[in-house]
Amino acid sequence: MEGQGIIVLPSKDLSEDIKFFRNIGFCQDQIYPADNPVFSVLSAYGLTLRIDKGAYVFPPTIHILTQNPDKLTKKLSSGNTAPNGTMVKVLPKLTEIHIPQPAQKFEVTHLNESDSWVVGRAGMLYRDLVPSRMGGALIASHIRLPNDGPVHDMVHYHKVMFQLIYCYKGWVKVLYEDQGKPLTLYPGDCVIQPPEIRHQVLECGDGFQVIEIGVPAQHMTTFDHHLQLPTVEYRPQREFSDQVFCHHQAKNAVWELKNGFNICNTGIYKATKGVASVIIAKPAYSSEVHSNHDCNIHFTFVLKGKTELRVEDSGSSILSEADAFVVPPNMAFVFCNYSNDLKLLQVSLSPGI
């Protein structure tokens, strides 16, 4: 779209205002007229300013994001308010992902205690599965759409260390950068969305619901208005921050017996180079199944069935379908009195995350 956006600032002393903004790195692009000028245009940091003696507007606050905020702050040592009243705030431009140290505690969420669904991006409804978010280290969301059909989504990406999408119910069609034609996820299918991979949700059906796990809890979603999906190239082994796209299909699941469970490994441990493990687990015996872990984060979601969960020093809880819990490292927990159809989604994050 043609045109240019300009922030208009008032001015009583054009020379002093120009001097202030030039001192903090703005370049003077225009001034008008040459004799007794009434406005000047300056630009820097992705901003274009028009300082205008004839402008009857309130002075705004301008936020400047820079990778070297200390250097720019020194130039504002005499004050961060321009002669025209405009306030300038210097903030760091975040290029790295900050993951807080997980706040470890046993936490369980029941569906019947968490009926509050909030409206999020693209009209999706979100239910928080770990309300504490482990101090900002993790977000676990149960997501659904109120209606089947096309999803009003745009090409976007997330600034994350790890992100899992597990199709819980229904189906959803999604496009991913360099992964070819649209993928359709059915119940039991899952993908990891490597850091900053561009993607777009196209449509869904049959009461679509997914479980989404993200690290850290708060992360930026950025829309890419220039990339069109699907991309021309097909590069399934392309790395995004050392991770490759992984698409696990339930119809191809391979099960093995391990620690009292029948385990389906999704391949995500290999795709993330050990950052995360995602498995589907079904008890192999009718007796109690004892568990423990030494991971940084360990999350479990009940996909099907019921179980009693006994946790060291925390008593017992009855878990049903769509309930979830997190448990700290080295805290013993036991599954007992479970139904024959019990099925669990378990996500573990490595100590290094």
**CATH C-level category of the largest domain:** Mainly Beta
The total count of strands amounts to: 30
Helix content percent band? under 10%
Please, what is the CATH homologous superfamily of the largest domain?
A: Jelly Rolls
Number of domains: 3
Report the end-to-end length measured between terminal Cα atoms.
Answer: 41 Å
What's the layout of helices and strands?
Elements: E1 7-10, H1 14-23, E2 27-32, E3 39-44, E4 47-52, E5 61-66, H2 69-75, E6 87-92, E7 107-109, E8 118-119, E9 125-128, E10 139-144, E11 149-150, E12 156-158, E13 162-176, E14 183-185, E15 190-192, E16 199-215, E17 221-223, E18 239-240, E19 243-244, E20 246-248, E21 255-258, E22 261-265, H3 268-271, E23 276-283, E24 289-291, E25 297-304, E26 307-311, E27 315-319, E28 324-326, E29 333-336, E30 343-349
Parallel strand pairs: 1-4, 5-6
Antiparallel strand pairs: 2-3, 3-4, 7-28, 8-9, 9-10, 10-16, 11-16, 12-17, 13-14, 13-15, 13-16, 15-20, 18-19, 21-22, 22-23, 23-30, 24-29, 25-28, 25-30, 26-27, 26-29
